Amino acid sequence: MPKARTIAFLVAAAISLVDHNDSARAQAQPCRSREYAHNAYTICEVDLSKHTVRLYWKRSDGTPYAYLSSLPRVLEYETGRLLFATNAGMFDPALKPVGLYVERGRELVHVNTKSGYGNFHMKPNGIFYIAAGRAAVAETQAFVKQRPQADVATQSGPMLVINGRLHPRFDQNSASLKARNGVGVRADGKVIFAISEEEVSFAAFARLFRNGLNCPNALFLDGGSASSLYASSLNRVGNILSLGPMLAVYERTRGASR
After folding, report:
1. S-S: 44 plus which of 183, 185, 193, 225, CB 3.0-4.6 Å?
2. Cβ contacts of residue 202 below 8 Å, gap of 6+?
C-alpha cells in the first residue's frame, strides 16, 4: 500500500475509534432530559450491574460534605468515576438525616416512625435501600417488619407511589408547586432518579414515576432549594445551600466490589 494511502487509512481508523468511544461514552451517561405531561425533568437511570451507588453524609473527621461537588470523584480503591449525585433525603439544621441512614452497611441514624408535621411525616413515608445487590423502595412499616440487611438505606417522605397507587393524600388540583426530586425502582430492577426542572405538584410528580417511568413504588426525596443534581455531563454543578445526606452514582469497573 502506498505510504500516503497508509497514512490516510490510519488517520481514518483513529478518527473512527475516537468517534466510537465518544458515542459509547455518551450512551453510558445515565442522565437525560425528558418532558412528561408538559413538565420538564432530568431522569437518571441506574443499572446496579454497571453502576455503584453510595450514600454520603460526613467525612472521616465528622464534618458534613454539605455540597455535591465535594464528593469523591472516584471510589476508594476503585477506578469508577462519579457520574452524578443528588440529595438523598431530609435533614435537620445540623445536616443530620431525619430518618434511617445506612452507609456501607453501617446504620448511623435509626429509623424514624414518629408522627409530626411536614412532608417527611406525611404517612406513609418510606425507605430507598439496596440489599444483596438489589434495590427497592418500601413503606417504612414494611421495611421495619422485613428488616433487610441493607448496604445503603435512606428514609424520606412521603411515598409517591405505593404498589402502583398514588399516595392517598395527594390532591390532583393542588396549587402547591415546588421543584421536586425522588427515586423509584422499576420491575426490572433499574433505579430511576428524577428531578423536576420546574415547579410541579406532588400528584404530577407521582404520575411521572408511575405512568411515565413505570415504577410501582417511588419515594419523594426533597423539594425546593434542597432539590439538587450534580452531573458533569449535563454541566450541572450541584447545590448552593448545604445538604445533609447525598446519593452518588459511580460507573462500575470490571471486577470492582459493590
Report:
1. 193
2. 158, 160, 167, 170, 171, 174, 176, 180, 220
